[in-house]
Automatic annotation (TrEMBL):
<keyword id="KW-0472">Membrane</keyword>
<dbReference type="InterPro" id="IPR029058">
    <property type="entry name" value="AB_hydrolase_fold"/>
</dbReference>
<dbReference type="InterPro" id="IPR000073">
    <property type="entry name" value="AB_hydrolase_1"/>
</dbReference>
<keyword id="KW-0812">Transmembrane</keyword>
<feature type="transmembrane region" description="Helical">
    <location>
        <begin position="12"/>
        <end position="33"/>
    </location>
</feature>
<protein>
    <submittedName>
        <fullName>Triacylglycerol lipase</fullName>
    </submittedName>
</protein>
<keyword id="KW-1133">Transmembrane helix</keyword>
<feature type="domain" description="AB hydrolase-1">
    <location>
        <begin position="10"/>
        <end position="127"/>
    </location>
</feature>
<dbReference type="Pfam" id="PF00561">
    <property type="entry name" value="Abhydrolase_1"/>
</dbReference>
Length: 250
């Protein structure tokens, strides 16, 4: 089925690890980018949220993304990708965008250089990490620093695409308790981070800045207490609306 629309340009949001487009829980529709699809529904621009294999490899997810993009009947596409979705998008651009329709990729806390957290989970014998290995297999193995170093040797940026990136960070004392050990460990390995991806790993192409948020807040899921002084929760609806507006006018 062709996803036909009357616009010449589309914006496609790409979810991360363990992600989905939308699911129904007890009759309520839940979106990976929380509440964002209905919030953006009044935009004249065509906006899509494709479902990718939640724990697939980068290649598997990129192929599904490319198949979805192939069915969008537009001249140009802008991608906005959270976390692992940025790696999927880079792979899809490099291998599958033969018509050069993808105009830009904006990544949000993508582990372009991998995350030591992935390697820590793989190596650990702790029961929690053993569970995480099982539920994130095989995707987790594509997110280690070593795997991403190989990825970056193979997947080059293409000249017709504008690559932009955002990182995020919060100090450990602003993190939900469940994320604080990861935040501190990752800080020792890689410096400032959002509990899962470091600022240095998230930088790619034109760096647009550092957001005050943890990794889950970037998709609209805040697991910490609201705080005006800590600017929690991160206003993801405003951020993505402004980003869509910027892409529409660029």
């Amino acid at each position: 089925m062709s996803l036909v629309n009357n616009n010449k340009t589309a914006i496609v949001f790409v979810h991360g690890l363990l992600g989905f487009s939308s699911i129904s829980i007890l009759g309520k529709i839940i979106h990976y980018f929380r509440a964002l699809p209905p919030y953006l529904s009044n935009h004249t621009q065509s906006i899509y949220f494709p479902p990718l294999p939640g724990t697939g490899t980068v290649e598997e997810r990129a192929r599904v993304l490319a198949d979805f993009l192939e069915r969008i009947n537009v001249d140009q596409i802008n991608l906005i990708a959270h976390s692992m979705g940025g790696l999927d998008s880079r792979y899809a651009i490099h291998h599958f965008d033969s018509q050069q329709r993808i105009r830009s990729l904006t990544t949000i806390a993508t582990p372009h250089r991998g995350t030591p957290l992935a390697q820590r989970i793989i190596n650990s014998k702790k029961p929690l990490y053993s569970l995480l290995r099982r539920i994130t297999h095989p995707a987790l193995y594509d997110l280690t620093p070593e795997a991403c170093a190989r990825f970056n040797l193979e997947i080059s940026d293409l000249p017709h695409v504008q690559y932009r990136s955002y990182a995020a960070t919060r100090p450990a004392n602003e993190m939900p308790p469940i994320f604080r050990p990861w935040t501190r460990a990752l800080a020792t390995d890689s410096g400032e981070n959002d509990s899962q991806v470091s600022v240095s790993s998230a930088r790619w192409g034109e760096f647009k800045g550092i957001l005050r948020a943890d990794h889950m807040e970037l998709a609209g899921w805040s697991m910490g207490w609201p705080s005006i002084s800590n600017e929690r929760p991160f206003d993801h609806l405003r951020f993505y609306t402004n980003l869509v507006r910027e892409l529409n006018t660029s």
